[in-house]
Amino acid sequence: CNVNPYTLGGDGDGGVIGDDAGGHDDGGGTIDARPPADAAPDACLPAPESCNTVDDDCDGQTDEDFNLDADPEHCGDCATSCDYTHAFGVCNAGACERGACVPGWVDIDGNPDDCEYFCIQTGGGVEVCDGRDNDCDGQSDEGFNLDSDPNNCGTCGHACNLVHASAACDTGQCVVDACDPGYVDLNPAVPGCEYLCTPSNGGVEICDAIDNDCDGVVDDGNPGGGQACGTDTGVCTAGTTVCSFGQLFCVGGNGGGPEVCDGMDNDCDGVDDNGFDFDNDPAHCGGCTACTVAHATAGCASGGCTVGACDFGWHDRNGLPGDGCESFCIATGAELCDGVDNDCDGLVDEGFDTQTDVNNCGSCGNVCGFANATATCDAGACAIDACDPNFWDDNGLPGDGCEYGCVLTNGGVETCDGQDNDCDGVIDDGNPGANQVCGTTTGACDTGLTSCSNGAIVCVGDTGPTSETCNNVDDDCDSGVDEGYDKLNDPRYCNNCAGCSLDHAIAGCSAGSCTVLACLSGWFDGNGLPGDGCELNCTPTGQEVCDGVDNDCDGLIDDADPGLLTPGNFCDPQGECAGTSPTCTGATGWDCVYGPTVEVDGNGDIVAEESLCDGLDNDCDSPDGVIGVDEAYPLKGTACAEDGTFGTSRELGICRGTGSLVCNGSHDGLACDVTSAGATPVAETCNNVDDDCDGHVDEPYDAGGYAGVRDVVVGPVTIGGQAVVMYRYEASRPNATAASAGFVETRACSVAGRLPWAGGDHAEADAACKAAGMRLCKVTRNGSGVITADEWGRFCEGAANRTFPYGNTYQGTTCNGSDYDPVPGGVNEDFAIPTGTLAGCQSQDLGRDLSGNLKEWTEDPRTVGGQTVYTLRGGSYDNHAGGLSCDFDLTVVPSDYTFANTGFRCCALSCPAGQSECGGACVNLATSNASCGACGRACGGGEACSNGYCCPVGSRACGDQCVPNASPCP
User: Fold this and answer.
1) What is the DSSP letter of 339?
2) At 687, phi and psi to the nearest 5?
3) Domain containing 440: what range?
């Protein structure tokens, strides 16, 4: 049998450099060539016998020199050669079998067809920790746990040696297992146990200036402190014990002092102000306040202040101790009226009545006196007692006395005579004899009232008679109106004196009303109303026609004349013109005056094509009211969206509503009638939709109050000294579903229940992870090619260093390898299934599908035969057990390799929420000028990053536009 083996370094379509350990032809390669069989000759010409089913030596036998049962070059027949990749072929009873492997090659997958693994044993075939497969069993450093081996912690040969401590290895990091006696590990950042200390007092801290519990702090926690101390009697207050310098002190209390008079117990003996005489001591009289008496010596009796003796010149007149000796006085003799207590009896000017005494009126020495009058003193004020005869105090001012000299006349009663009869200072005051009716009310005349003027009575405000005129008034007050004027027949006084003046006519008067006697030439009284005379200027031409002229001179023009000649209906009967009939428009003749919904030009003619959008046939060319309606707007009824056109606001993402185009409110264009409203913005999810309505789709960073995509990751786990996270699920496309792998390749997603992203090369996988703010999972090697940090491997193996993600024993149906049948009961189908389908295919860190489903690209570049190759990890749906383990790393391919069973997942540093890894650092792609919106996308000079957009300095991102900071978002 010919198994068509692959050769390392072949140039087949798959481009595989190593086998996939699963026995399936997904790697490509070159099939070993065979020489074609020669055609049989036409005659038997003797020749050396060859194995070709021909009698070459013409001896009557065919292929007699060849043992087809045992010859590996011709096994079973001449055409079959027992060829195996890196192994010797054996022919047994005419059937090919694989013999021993070629030196340097090993069969580790149990496939009888080849020896696929190149390996030369080192160290006598005993496995040591050096990053190599010393015993050629397909595994490197098995039996050594770099996560827990203190002699190989993190990397081979890295032994944990700590100061004053025994060491252990935890997740690849050296840690203290136990400190040496007398030492304590206070600072985890310092390797070993650096603090020299022996616990005392049973490890319980007391106040003794010693670190009893060896935590690096002496007397920490204030041992013995916090207890009450001192007393609360009187002004004293209790304190609290505090440990300081190894001793307990009472802090915060008040210990009191000598007693003082202040209403408090100063000496804290339980008695306030003891030792003070409150009954007799003027310094503490009735309490702690000293007696103070003005202008006197103070005393104290029964707890009350008293006046002892007044100072010289001071007197206690009121007997009240509160104001002391309140009166100051030195006697000078008998009392005088001078405003002074001359005799010091406490009274001033006693014996003098300043309220009635005209010589001391109101004050001492004030003598009352008035001109032409006698004086009196009333309530301390000077007043006139009586005027001298024929003198009067008319102004009421006492200063000038009785200033008015006058003799009473007419018994003192005022009359209209030009004299001051009552001597009140005013002549004819009160208008005596006035306000009596005078004059007549006949005709236009009217009465007035009498008034006293210059000592005589006159009639004021009356109206007298005038000459008679034609005005409907009795002007001469003789009880006759307009006598002498003929208002019934004389056209000069007709119309009640107004007279008659008619246009283009000779006027007459009849019964007091104006009449038309005759019209002037060329004028007619068309309306029969005399008021406007002969108002119609007209020349008769015949019967009335529509021309804006009164053809028959009857005063009626055009359609106002019942005798008007009319035409038939020549108006357009379609659309909005329907129901219109000809209208007489005057000088322009008959015309079709259409309604406001019909579009006409400047001449009044229907336009050739309507410009309005209103659902009506404005140009009257539609026979059915449908065809020809709004024909200037062919987009009417088509789909539209809220994109800033057709009267909509510019919305983005799921916030953009949709509808159809309808006529706008002003009927001069189209508007978008939104019938399906946009949604409210929400946090981004990886779904090829702009969920937060900012113009970015599936961005990994936060902006505008909404979170970016939060891919489902596992970790963080410390690998190579850094906290790293990994996609929980194999990468899928943003629009993938459980039934479709999708086609949008803007970024990678970590979502359960989607068909994973398959068939991409290294560049495609790398770009998809970076677009998600992550990268491919890295493998770090030293200069000798030994792995020092393996992100993918660590997440697969977990802290327990498992062989498979789920454990150390292969389980054929736990993950989607060759032994798993996605369709039970059928043939063994091999294809990818949605991410996370198999719940048991889970690592310690909760990563799914790290074994099987799709092989996964990693960032592990190596040079083989002058070509850069990368490692595919985890195996796929068509691999057997050997290719599905966490540490199987023998499938290496060039960067442009593509195959349906190849996918990827992403890793990154553990960054704060909303930040991404760029060049080994956590970056906020929403605001980083060096990585704006994506790693390495730098903003130019004069630009700044705003929500992933490079905007001019002084502006910010509003949706997907840059707007000045001082302006609102549109």
Assistant:
1) S
2) -145, 15
3) 411-485
Residues 571 and 644 in one domain: no
* Residue closest to 556 by CA, chosen among 526, 518, 597, 584: 526
pLDDT averaged per 10 residues in sequence order, the chain, 970 residues: 30 37 35 32 69 87 89 90 88 90 85 84 84 85 86 88 88 87 83 88 89 87 85 82 83 78 84 85 86 87 86 84 84 83 83 86 87 88 87 84 86 86 85 85 85 87 85 84 84 86 85 86 81 84 87 85 86 85 87 87 86 88 79 91 90 92 92 93 93 90 88 95 97 96 96 97 96 95 90 96 96 93 72 95 97 96 90 94 92 94 96 93 94 93 94 92 90
For residue 212, give Cα distances in angstroms to 180, 201, 204, 247, 969: 18, 6, 6, 15, 65
CATH code for the domain of 747: 3.90.1580
308 with 233, same domain: the answer is no
241 plus 310 within the same structural domain: no
In terms of domains, do 265 and 299 share one? no
Please tell me the distance from the alpha carbon of residue 355 to that of residue 362, in angstroms, as a whole number. 6
**Final residue belonging to a domain, choices 537, 567, 592:** 592
Distance CA 704, CA 393 (A): 96
- Count up the domains in the chain and report the number: 6
CA distances from 529 to 212, 500, 534, 568, 939 (A): 133, 14, 9, 36, 92
Q: Are residues 833 and 720 in the same domain?
A: yes
Cα 905 to chain centroid distance, Å, stands at 35
Q: How far is CA 239 from CA 220, 224, 230, 271, in A?
A: 20, 14, 6, 22
Apex CA 909: angle with CA 908 and CA 915, to 5°? 90
Hey, what are 785's tokens?
Answer: 């090619």
550 exposure class (CB count in 10 Å sphere: 0-12, 13-18, 19+)? buried
Q: Which residues contact 105 (CB under 8 A, 6 or more apart)?
A: 86, 87, 115, 116, 117, 118, 119
- The answer as to whether 717 is a domain residue is yes
Q: Are 450 and 435 in contact (CB under 8 A)?
A: yes
Residue 711 — left, alpha, or beta (φ > 0 → left; ψ -120 to 50 → alpha)?
beta
